[in-house]
Design goal:
The complex is a heterodimer of chains A (about 700) and B (about 350). Chain A has a domain of about 300 residues: MetI-like (MetI-like fold). Chain A is built from 32 helices and 2 strands. Chain A has a two-stranded antiparallel ribbon. In chain A, strand 1 and strand 2 form a beta hairpin. Chain A is globular. Helix content of chain B is about 40%, strand content about 25%. Chain B has 15 helices and 13 strands. In chain B, strands 6-7-8-3-9-10 form a 6-stranded mixed sheet, with helices on both faces. A 4-stranded antiparallel sheet of chain B has the order 2-1-4-5. In chain B, strands 11-12-13 form a 3-stranded mixed sheet. In chain B, a hairpin with a 2-residue loop joins strand 9 and strand 10. In chain B, helix 6 crosses helix 7. The chains are: A mainly alpha (about 700), B alpha/beta (about 350). Chains A and B meet through helix 11 and helix 12 of A and helix 1, helix 2, helix 3 and helix 5 of B.
Chain lengths: ~700, ~350
């Protein structure tokens, strides 16, 4: 209905303004010189850093609160009647589940997992699951894995129990949706580290804080993808339901939920992967399991042990990912009989189920009565930590070739990138850094509000007294982002031009996106020891996949007829790329860059575990003994994340955001190849459809 | 139009306006503004404006208009998928705006069903489950509704395809499923929202024939939306031509072709093969006292069938209806009616 107005607007825009040609390079050169001059003047004329006189002791109220909690938690009703019972309940539930799994014995658990995978996703997945669990046992990670699995299962259960209904409600009530959207945005923007400290303040170190953090982290995709699935059910399908007299419940059950199923299943998959993804972060608040093994091994610089535990997490991730994915695919293929085919034998679903149950019962009985082994027998395990450590020692010896190279890279990174940048950020007066953020925000969005907000939020970091470490973090983020984008975009372009490259890259990227972020920390400390450089390298590698994929996708999605038109006028392949494909792919590529930045930030923060310093280190210290400072650092991570996210999202036309909206970010983070035919397609439809498609 | 008591569907001055404070526009002078001006002035869009009509039981009433004329909105107000902004919609004389949710659902479940433009089949259900959808919603037991669905599939010529899924069927077959689904609840009234516009011309013709056959067999009241005049003329007992939310003419196919109400309708009907639509009754005149007749022709004979007669004989023919003479036609009248545009 607004169309005519818009047309009039467009006509108005066309009123001829005399066009003065300015070479873009000349303009850019002027800008560059001006920037350098301003920075130099700033360095020379003003003292750098954030003046102490403007800071407040933000940590004190939090420390006071922490003390208050410690002294009052036995008397205050909020604690006595709610938080403490909640905590006890969660602790008991997790402990009980671990105990139960132990009682099943290792054989029982292995067969149970395989049986569930088999019934849900087919015998191939049963074999994969059994192999995965066996490998975990052989690596000597059985007990750790039970703890990890228990936390993941319960967290995912809670996240889905909250996320699915909330997703349905928000799809049906646009007002709830508009309230939830910024909340979910924030939840997905903020690195999980940032909200650990408040949880620890309330629940102290332990299972409860770990589980709530996991639920918070895993919740957004469950809500978003459920809501997306329901909202993108075609209007006609809903009209069909209504026209035949359905109640609103019938429309939901018989039309919306079935049609939204692929998207909802993807949400389940994502929820599980997210939960598994922060298992090491759960370890920093003291939850045992694979995560804690990695955490402690990283602290002890025991690369071998970290690698072994990390491998266990990767195995769990791959098993859970593939099984849930195969399960959702299977839901989509509903043709033919419900029979399960095993080695050419066709078994009916019911027989399969009975066999599975019998196998589980038999395994538990054998495990308990015959083997009498609750935990995977230690005699069978193979320790890879020792050999790995030997190899790492050899690699990192500075007189060996590899050691020399990595040492060289580390020095280069510190001396020519990280240190100069940090010195620059700290050498500039604070208002110039904040002003830089404001200018960037304004240039990206042309919105004064965003510019002012950016200035104030960055300045707040200084006011809270963590300016120096925040600038340290920022310098690491900037270096990692520049390198990551410089690698990812050319790779993405290459992949878009060659099907063979894409075929090779796809499985690699799939695996990379299945692995939790901290897993990237392990190999880099093997090669680069500890410090800022390995953190930056882990961050830049972790952030590669979405940017590669979105560049590739953006170019490949350019309509064929536009490319044809250029070719018909005699454009070379290079000209087609530069003048047609890249400009049209810009929104998608910019989204990729946004993804890169957010992912880099999250890894740079946790790289504090391997000596990255910065805000992340303050959080870790806060968890251990200085809650006030940890809380402040967490808040500043949040501020930094929000400012960076808003600015990078605003880059490009406003339509860029709509083209591949926030909803799909979740998907892109975790492998768009898997979203074929489901949310992406739906999302594309959503873009194509005018939300108000009335006759007008 | 005069009040006809036995009308099964009636619209009385129905309006549908989208936009802020849409309900305050009807009855003010703004309501008569052309659409563009109304939009400029109030940012409201008038989709349907002051539409009134009656449909008799067993009648096929076609609403014809170009896209944006408001016809799809109109048909959705008949089962209240959209609520009218003003005016009344009466089913069997009862105002459907007065129905509570429960009774409205009951009407939709039993009395009125709908066939959709893009078929609107549910991809996750087998064909038989799609056809049985209305019965399932109504709470009919599985066995009974599947039996009924199987019967109806037979009627629309899809016997044996019940276990297939929608995406395994061609467009024409999918719309037969849509038709079967609407028939399965055994409604009195069937609404068709441009059901065949997405189909190839040949398939479309088959489907139109199917509807004509069905109408002969089951005698439903049908309200049929189309943008295709040929389809309207072929199916409709009466046709309403809709433009910018208003009815510009209601009449039988013949009336519309022979006496277009305005230039807009005339423009539409210009290319209609008049010889196939117009009848002796439309072009006859009263006798001027002639006594020398070439013979008798029935009043509903189309011009096509009169042509060879008037070519052979210059004398006028008597037009006879029920054995009595109602007028005369001659060569001049036939030729004049055919070239008139």
């Amino acid at each position: 209905m607004a169309v005519p107005l818009r047309e009039i607007q467009q006509v108005a825009d066309l009123t001829l303004v005399p066009h003065v040609p300015v070479s873009p390079w000349r303009r850019r050169a002027v800008w560059a010189v001006a920037t350098v001059v301003v920075l130099a003047l700033g360095m020379i004329l003003f003292s750098g850093g954030f003046p102490d006189s403007l800071t407040v002791d933000a940590a004190r109220p939090f420390n006071a609160f922490s003390d208050w909690v410690i002294t009052h938690q036995r008397t205050t009703p909020l604690f006595v009647d709610f938080l403490v019972p909640l905590k006890d309940g969660i602790n008991a539930a997790v402990d009980h589940l671990v105990l139960q799994l132990e009682r099943f014995t290792w054989l029982g658990v292995l067969v149970l997992a395989a049986a569930i995978a088999g019934v849900l996703a087919g015998w191939r997945m049963a074999v994969l699951t059994a192999a995965g669990f066996l490998a975990i046992g052989l690596l000597g990670l059985w007990e750790d894995s039970l703890h990890t699995l228990a936390l993941v299962l319960l967290s995912v259960g809670v996240a889905l129990a909250i996320g699915l209904p909330v997703g349905v409600l928000s799809a049906r009530h646009p007002r709830l949706e508009s309230v939830l959207r910024p909340v979910l945005d924030a939840m997905q923007t903020v690195p999980a580290f940032a909200y650990l400290v408040p949880l620890v303040l309330l629940f102290s170190i332990g299972t409860t804080a770990a589980m709530i953090a996991t639920v918070i982290f895993a919740l957004p995709p469950a809500i978003r993808l459920t809501s997306l699935g329901i909202r993108t059910v075609p209007e006609t399908s809903i009209e069909v339901g209504e026209a035949f007299g359905s109640t609103s419940w019938q429309v939901l059950r018989k039309v919306q939920l079935p049609l939204a199923k692929p998207s909802i299943m993807l949400g389940v998959n994502q929820t599980i992967m997210m939960a598994l993804g922060i298992i090491v972060i759960a370890a920093t608040v003291g939850y045992p399991g694979l995560g804690l093994s990695v955490y402690q091994a990283l602290q002890d610089l025991n690369v071998g042990a970290a690698l072994a535990a990390g491998l266990g997490i990767v195995i769990l991730a791959i098993v859970l990912d593939r099984v849930t994915h195969a399960w959702s695919e299977r839901g989509r293929v509903r043709r033919g009989s419900t029979a399960i085919r095993v080695f050419g034998w066709s078994v009916s679903r019911r027989v399969g189920l009975i066999v599975a149950v019998l196998a589980v019962v038999a395994a538990i009985v054998i495990g308990r009565q015959v083997l009498r082994q609750q935990i995977f027998p230690t005699g069978w395990t193979v320790s890879i930590a020792g050999p790995v450590n030997t190899a790492v020692d050899w690699i990192t010896r500075p007189d060996e070739a590899i050691g020399r190279i990595t040492k060289h890279i580390t020095d280069l990174g510190v001396n020519y990138a990280l240190d100069p940048l940090r010195s620059l950020l700290l050498g500039l007066p604070w208002w110039m850094v904040c002003g830089g953020a404001a200018v960037a925000a304004w240039a990206a969005s042309r919105r004064v509000g965003l510019a002012i907000a950016s200035f104030l939020l960055i300045a707040a970091i200084g006011v809270f007294g963590v300016w120096d470490i925040a600038m340290d973090t920022l310098s690491q983020v900037i270096v990692a982002v520049i390198l990551s984008v410089a690698i990812a975009i050319p790779l993405g372009i290459w992949s878009s031009q060659s099907d063979r490259v894409q075929r090779v890259l796809r499985p690699v990227l799939d695996v990379m996106q299945t692995m939790p972020q901290f897993v990237y920390l392990v190999p880099v400390i093997a090669l680069f020891a500890v410090g800022r450089v390995p953190g930056v390298i882990a961050a830049l590698v972790y952030a590669l996949p979405p940017c590669i994929r979105l560049t590739d996708l953006g170019i490949r999605q350019v309509p064929a007829e536009r490319v044809e038109a250029a070719v018909a006028f005699g454009a070379t392949k290079r000209q087609v790329l530069r003048k047609v494909q890249l400009p049209l792919a810009r929104p998608s590529i910019l989204l990729g860059v946004n993804q890169t930045i957010m992912m880099v930030l999250s890894v740079v923060i946790i790289a504090a575990l391997i000596g990255g310093g910065g805000l992340g280190l303050a959080v870790i210290q806060g968890l251990n003994h200085d809650p006030g400072r940890g809380m402040v650092a967490g808040i500043c991570i949040l501020l930094l994340a929000i400012v960076i996210d808003r600015i990078t999202q605003a880059v490009g036309q406003p339509t860029a955001r709509k083209a591949v909206g926030t909803e799909h970010r979740i998907g892109w983070l975790f492998g768009p190849s898997r979203m074929r035919g489901s949310a992406v397609q739906v999302g594309v439809q959503e873009i194509a459809m005018d939300p108000r498609e009335e006759e007008a | 139009m005069s009040e006809v008591p036995q009308a099964i569907v009636s619209c009385r001055n129905v309006w549908k306006i989208y936009g802020p404070k849409a309900d305050r526009i009807v009855g003010t002078p703004d309501a008569d503004l052309p659409r563009e001006e109304l939009l400029q002035k109030t940012s409201c869009v008038a989709a349907v404006r002051d539409v009134s009509f009656d449909v008799q039981p067993g009648e096929v009433f076609v609403v014809m208009g170009l896209s944006g004329s408001g016809k799809s909105t109109l048909v959705r107000m008949l089962n209240r998928l959209h609520d009218p902004t003003a005016g009344k919609v009466l089913l069997d004389g009862d105002d459907i705006m007065q129905l509570d949710d429960e009774r409205l659902r009951e009407v939709r479940r039993r009395k009125i069903s709908m066939v959709f433009q893009h078929f609107g089949l549910l991809p996750h259900r087998r064909i038989v489950d799609n056809v049985a959808f209305g019965l399932e919603i109504r709470g009919v037991e599985k066995e009974e509704r599947e039996a009924k669905a199987t019967d109806v599939l037979q009627v629309v010529g899809l016997a044996g395809l019940g276990n297939a899924y929608p995406d395994e069927l061609s467009g024409g077959m999918q719309q037969r499923v849509g038709l079967a689904r609407a028939l399965a609840t055994d409604p009195e009234i069937m609404l068709f929202d441009e059901p065949f516009s997405a189909l190839d011309p040949l398939i479309r013709r088959d489907m139109q024939d199917e509807v004509i056959r069905l109408q002969r067999d089951v005698q439903k009241t049908m309200i049929f939306i189309t943008h295709d005049l040929a389809e309207a003329l072929k199916l409709g007992d009466r046709i309403a031509i809709m433009k910018d939310g208003r009815f510009v003419q209601i009449g039988t196919p013949e009336e519309v072709v022979a006496h277009p109400a305005d230039d807009y309708v005339a423009d539409f009907t210009r290319d209609v093969p008049r010889a196939h639509v117009l009848t002796a009754r439309t072009i006859m005149r009263s006798t001027d006292g002639e006594t020398d007749f070439a013979g008798d022709v029935p009043a509903d004979a189309i011009l096509q069938s009169l042509l060879p007669l008037v070519v052979k004989d210059e004398r006028p023919f008597r037009v006879v209806d029920d054995g009595t003479q109602v007028g005369i036609v001659d060569r001049t009248a036939v030729l004049a009616a055919m070239v008139e545009a």
